[in-house]
Each structure stands twice: as structure tokens, then as C-alpha cells.
Specification:
Layout: E1 2-3, E2 7-16, E3 19-26, E4 31-39, H1 45-55, E5 66-73, E6 76-82, E7 86-88, H2 89-95, E8 98-99, H3 100-119, E9 132-135, E10 140-142, H4 154-161, E11 163-165, E12 168-170
Antiparallel strand pairs: 1-2, 2-3, 3-4, 4-6, 5-6, 7-9, 8-12, 9-10, 11-12
Helix pairs in contact: 3-4
């Protein structure tokens, strides 16, 4: 399937909370992009696009940038984001608890990214381990939520820190 004669859907990455995320190929620029779709009939659909528009106010490189928006394309609203070859924090932690230094690095990166967003009046309203991506290099990326604009999430970062066990920090997934 090709959306807007430009984005060729390649691999379905996830499906949750009524939306579907794909890795797609941008045929014009020959690069991978992330494509999130939500049915146009979903009551959250207008907020989905508005949240994506507002997220462009945040320029911190740790947030995945929105590259394009499509309204009612094949019955869906679509947000196209830059692609990050990374794993969700939920997947990383399913393997094993994060060592203390790594956990501290992840939390610090997320906190710094959120502080940047807050300086621009934007807040992540639903930060979960699914929204934190960790690249093989250790770099941390944050994804804004599909149906919610950026809004306050300091408590979520603290929740991710979890409990201490034998010198390691176990970050819990709700």
C-alpha cells in the first residue's frame, strides 16, 4: 500500500490503542520513515493530527520529528515521522533490568528532552516505556503519543526508575 503516492508501507511495527505503526519507505527521498495511522472515524483523530502539529514546536533531537500529516488518507489520519532504528524501552527491559548507570542515562536523557519541550510550552501527557526508544548506540529517542499532545510526564519517568536490586536499577513496565 502506498499512501499519498509517496509512502510505501513495508513492515507493521505495532498495533495498540486503535492505531497502527508501520515502517515505510518515502519513495520521493528514498529513506525509511515511521507512519502512524488512526481511523478517521476515531473520536481521537482530530487530536491525533493537532498533537502532531504542536509537536513540531519541540526541536530537541531526542524527539522523533514529524515530517508530514495526511488527513483522511484511505479512511485514516496519518502522521509521518522520522525513523529510528531502535527498541522500545519496554522491549529492552523485558530482556533484563538496566544497570544503574544505563538506567540513570536513560532517565536523564528523557528528563532533558522533556525539559526542552516544557520550555516551549509542550508537555508529554502519556509517557510510557513504549514512548522511549533506545538505539544500539545507547542514544535515547522520545516519541510523542499518537492521540495526546505533549503534556506533563515527570511522574511517569520516576515510575520507570522502579526498584533497586543487587546494585542494578530495575525499571518496571506497568
Amino acid at each position: 500500500v502506498v499512501l499519498a503516492d509517496r509512502y510505501e508501507l513495508q513492515d507493521q511495527v505495532s498495533e495498540r490503542l486503535g492505531s497502527v505503526t508501520w515502517r515505510a519507505l518515502d519513495l520521493l527521498l528514498n529513506r525509511n520513515v515511521g507512519v502512524e495511522l488512526i481511523p478517521s472515524s476515531d473520536p481521537r483523530a482530530p487530536h491525533f493530527l493537532e498533537a502532531a502539529r504542536r509537536s513540531t514546536l519541540v526541536t530537541d533531537a531526542r524527539f522523533l520529528r514529524v515530517l508530514d500529516l495526511l488527513e483522511n488518507e484511505h479512511g485514516h489520519h496519518v502522521v509521518v515521522r522520522e525513523w529510528a532504528k531502535a527498541f522500545g524501552l519496554n522491549q529492552v527491559l523485558a530482556q533484563s533490568p538496566a544497570p544503574s548507570r544505563r538506567a540513570a542515562h536513560i532517565v536523564a536523557e528523557v528528563a532533558d528532552a522533556l525539559a526542552h519541550a516544557h520550555e516551549r510550552g509542550q508537555y508529554h501527557r502519556r509517557l510510557t516505556p513504549h514512548h522511549v526508544l533506545v538505539k544500539e548506540s545507547g542514544a535515547v529517542r522520545v516519541v510523542t503519543d499518537k492521540a495526546y499532545p505533549l503534556d506533563c510526564a515527570a511522574a511517569a519517568v520516576a515510575h520507570m526508575l522502579g526498584h533497586h536490586a543487587r546494585g542494578k536499577v530495575a525499571i518496571t513496565v506497568p
